[in-house]
Every structure is written in C-alpha cells, then in structure tokens.
C-alpha cells in the first residue's frame, strides 16, 4: 500500500489530490481545487494541502504548464517563478517528486478513462495491438502530447506543439493566416486553436461579412470571456459570424489533430481534452471535425482507422499525474 500526492497546476486553478495505491487500483483519499493566486509558491500550495500527512506520502508528481527541463519549469501563466523538483521534495520531507508537462499528465490520464467518461467521435478499426496515443487540448492555450508504447508500457513525450506554425487548409484559412500575420507577425496554431484563438477567428469573420454585430452580443463580449461567448453563441447558432467562426475552429481543430496523429503514428487513438471541446460538443458531433481529421490524401484510409475520443473528466490530468507517481515507486 502506498500513498500518492498528485497535482494539476494551472494559471487559474490548482487541483491537488491524495491517492491510495494498492498495487492494482488507485483510490482517491481527498482532493481540493483552489485558485492558484491563493499561494505564493508551489511549495506553499503543497504543504498547506498535505498538512501533517507529508511523512505518509511515498511519491508525488505534478503536471505543470510549460516545458520541464532538468527538473525545473518556469510557467509564464503561473505566478510562482521557477518550480523545482528538489525544493518541492525538501518541503515533503525528502520524498521523491517529479514535475511533468501538464499535457503529459493528461495523456497518461486519458488511457485510464472508462468509456463512460469519454465521447466517441470516431470508433476507428479494431485494434489487436497496443499503439501510440496522442492528446490535443484547446483551452486558454493549445497543448499537445503523445504516449509512445514500448517495452510493455506507455512513455510520455511532451511537446510545445501549440507554438508550431498554423497551417491553413484552404483559401479561406489562407486569408485568416494573412489577417493574423498583419497583427501578430508569426502565427502559431495556438493563435487559432484556443479561447483567444476562437475570438481571433470571429474578428476575421466580422472583417469579411460586414454584418452588424447585435447589441446583445456586444454586451456579452464586454462582460464575459470573448472566446467562450463565440463558442456558446455559435453552438446555439445565434449569430452568423459566431457560427462561421466556430465552424472554422472545428475544421482547424480536426486538421491539427490529424496532423498530430500522423506525426506520432497514433494508432492507439487520439484524445481531445481541454476546456473548449466539451462546451462545443454538438459542433464536434456533426462530422465536421472527423472529416477534417481524416482529410489527409493518400493516408486518409489509415486515419479512418484511428479512434477519436473526447475526455469528459475534469480530473483526468490529476489522475494522470498520480499514475506517473506510481511509476516512481
């Protein structure tokens, strides 16, 4: 029996959990979600959550936004400065600690998800052997990661794929690229596939349509998250430019997921995570996403055999970090 401490650290919220590992099952003991701004450092967050249980913990792992290099990470959207495995371990009475990329934690979590916590977008073919798995997550930014299957287990391959170049797929998307280049210069795929990216697409659609923006919509933009508003109104088909923006977003999302599947040969499946996908589920179900995913010319038939699932579990990264901690025992 072992006690595991896991964490999913984000710019907005910090999700920490204690788990009991019996050798074949992972059971939650307790967890707490707090505003990240409540804490001065990750050590502060961890010690306040753990309390007097620090000596009972056998291993700890935390999913953090950004590249982990040499056991350290400096996440631009987490106001804690540099996070270091060594100092976190010291705060936990010397117990082993690992920092991993947050999408790596999500990737490790999705492979343990039951079907009840997934939405199947494409069933794919019958898989008779384990294969690599890919995860793509649009939210505040765009995260991408993969799991390479080798020697009987999955190995996390983290990436900063959201910062690679946006690759337009048709004339309209070329115009979108040019629109964004005039503002940002370099256009990463995250400039399109994220909450702010969805609002960027909406602004592009507005520049082309000339349709007057309703006053009720302008008021929503002024008081709410603009990207979330575009997603909500577009899903409800409440205003033409929001609908078109969301359709373009889904097209690009599907194409980029297909690109990722090809790059890592994700025959084990592709998972969608992040905050946006569950909120626009009706638009993802109508076939547009899957068509863009599979539209890969000579390799389209192979892409059609890859399962595509959407994670519906808000704690998937937390459980993924817990499974990585188990591997440290």
Based on the model shown, name its key terms.
single chain, 329 residues, Hexokinase, domain 1, six-stranded mixed β-sheet, five-stranded mixed β-sheet, 12 helices
What does this structure look like?
This protein has 329 residues and is an alpha/beta fold. The chain contains twelve helices and 13 strands. The protein has a six-stranded mixed beta sheet with strand order 8-13-12-9-10-11, with helices on both faces. A five-stranded mixed beta sheet has the order 3-2-1-4-7, with helices on both faces. Helix 3 packs across helix 12 (316-326). It is globular.
Topology summary:
Layout: E1 2-9, E2 13-21, E3 26-35, H1 42-50, E4 59-64, E5 72-74, E6 82-84, H2 85-91, E7 97-101, H3 102-110, E8 118-122, E9 133-138, E10 142-150, E11 153-158, H4 171-184, H5 195-209, H6 215-223, H7 226-235, H8 240-264, E12 269-273, H9 281-285, H10 288-294, H11 300-303, E13 308-311, H12 316-326
Parallel strand pairs: 1-4, 4-7, 9-12, 12-13
Antiparallel strand pairs: 1-2, 2-3, 5-6, 8-13, 9-10, 10-11
Helix pairs in contact: 3-12, 5-7, 5-8, 7-8, 8-10
CATH architect. name of the largest domain: 3-Layer(aba) Sandwich
Number of continuous helical runs = 12
What does the average pLDDT come to?
A: 94
Q: What is the alpha-carbon Rg in Å?
A: 20 Å
What's the structural domain tally? 2
**Structural class per helix/strand content?**
alpha/beta
> Whole-Å distance between the termini?
11 Å
Helix content: 25-40%
State the shape: globular
- Across the major sheet, the strand order is 8-13-12-9-10-11
Topology pattern, helix = H, strand = E? EEEHEEEHEHEEEEHHHHHEHHHEH
CATH class of the largest domain, please? Answer: Alpha Beta
The biggest sheet amounts to: 6 strands, mixed
Segments where pLDDT lies below 50 for 5+ residues?
none
Strand content: 15-25%
Number of separate strands: 13
The CATH topology of the largest domain turns out to be: Hexokinase, domain 1
